[in-house]
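S1.2 Input.
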Amino acid sequence: MGVKRSIGYGLAGSSILGVGVAAKRLFALDRQRGAYRRAWESHSLATLKWLSDLDGQGGTTGALEDRDEENAGAKDEENAHAQRPFVYVALGDSSVQGIGASSVEESYPARLASAIETAKGQKVALINISLSGATSESVEMGQIPLMRGLGLLDPGSEPDLVTLTIGGNDVMVPQITPSAYSLAIARILDALKGRVLVSTIPSFAPMSQDARAQDMSELLAEEARAHGAGLVDIRALSQSWSLASYAFHYHAADMFHPNTQAYAAWAQEFYNVLAKDAGLRPLDVASAPQWGIGSHRVAESEA
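S1.3 Output.
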């Protein structure tokens, strides 16, 4: 009887410890929302200042003396092209913020930016204006107007790349019908110019909402093709993993957001589509250096 009682206490203790660890991870994940948002805001402000400073310098580090006017103009143009960063704007929801990753530097936009910089040998100016909890309506009513206000939709000032990942929250809001989602995506893509990559909605299996995710992903894909946007099939990627692997190896503690491993796979999918579209060399995104976020607020988490 004493042995059985000891075993029972041991199992109970292990169970309590497991619950405690899970609760700690969930709390850390919840704290990410504010920490990651502030980190990206700080980074994006620093990036915008950097771009503004480059504009003020004409994209150069200063003119050389004793040059005739014609040679000076040619040299300035050459320097401006060499020093001009690749401007990348990330739109979307908490998955674009990197919620669930160990740090904002492990988010898929940060990993993708590092891969682009490695492949092109050109600095990347990443402006992440995504929002945790965003739906397609949030992008249309908040993020697109913000781009417009920053001059990122002005003719001749469009980013070199825009990525859009939106729909996970739309799936969870019954009031947002698939047709309303499709129309919002169409209006968003109407507003964007230049190279745009749009990702499908990951699998929600085994949840009942997976049927909505499938319908919305198909509609999103139709709009992407109609607007000439590149399609990154994150849904197919998530369905390529076994259900057990998807649930326990590619999700954060809340079993909703992707984790660091998942975001690494997402970044590779984005890069593969971009490389094919833009003629970049094949690259293992994991081999690229960790992204150096331009912020003193580098948020991290154990989630």
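S1.4 Remarks. Residues 33-287 form a domain with the Rossmann fold fold (CATH 3.40.50.1110).
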